[in-house]
Amino acid sequence: MPEFDDVDRQLLRMLREDGRCTFSEMAPEVGLSVAAVKRRVDRLKDTGVIKGFTVQIDHTKLGWGIEAFVELSYTGTTPVGEIVRTCYTVPEVQAVFTIAGDPDALVHVRVRDIEHLQQVIDGLRRVGQVTGTKTLMVLGSWTRTA
Amino acid sequence: MPEFDDVDRQLLRMLREDGRCTFSEMAPEVGLSVAAVKRRVDRLKDTGVIKGFTVQIDHTKLGWGIEAFVELSYTGTTPVGEIVRTCYTVPEVQAVFTIAGDPDALVHVRVRDIEHLQQVIDGLRRVGQVTGTKTLMVLGSWTRTA
DNA sequence: GTTGAAATAGATTCTTC
DNA sequence: GAAGAATCTATTTCAAC
Question: Which keywords are on file for this protein (chains A, B) (predicted)?
């Protein structure tokens, strides 16, 4: 990453708040022309700073109201790559974080109800050499800019 | 949420993979007309299923290479709303999850380096009635569809 | 639910400074 | 680096089915 200035930061902030924000909307905000804004956003994509765009979904509205983090501990011989692989095949898993120390992984899951959560946790325990789990039930959440 | 069918699910899946996917791109995929796709996406926005759109950023490219989860425990008298409020004023905090049981909150932070992480954790400890913290350093991560 | 057409707006490219 | 104009593409609305 060579130069990266306040204008770039401003553009990223605007795109974080609205990923479909147009060049014409951003241009006056940063005091540049539409063409100049396009060149900057293109450069952010080319350099990989912008990985892509996505939609923000309210999962409770879809009936997937329960969110939890599952801490997983594995036997010492389990390679990290296998931990991730055994987790992301489970459709309820939203994200997997491999961790230094204890636990070995933190898995973010989203489920319809408690019974469903129980099934998902059982599924995670079964695959691989899991030695223990601890489930953190999410009561509420706040995410930056969402 | 009244009716919500496979076409809607397909549209959400496509928008998750590319939030800037156009109606004209989605229409042939789901076998509907452009106008019909627009009506469905508009309905998903109106009903709140679609909360918004955002950009996916590679923070390592911006020099914020370290990611961690901090488990926070509070005194019994601390209201949940205050926990969230004291956390999201810290700019390094990406997300706050309030938890049922122990710990009371799980905080996702993103920092430049270890020294910076130390400062952020110290900052989180200072505000509110924090009785203990445990930090999970993220070695690697996988997120659905990202 | 569909099609097609028309109007608007945004993206993109090119030439200019 | 930047602006402005021309072109193309997509969105949006509408009428009719």
Answer: DNA-binding, Transcription, Transcription regulation
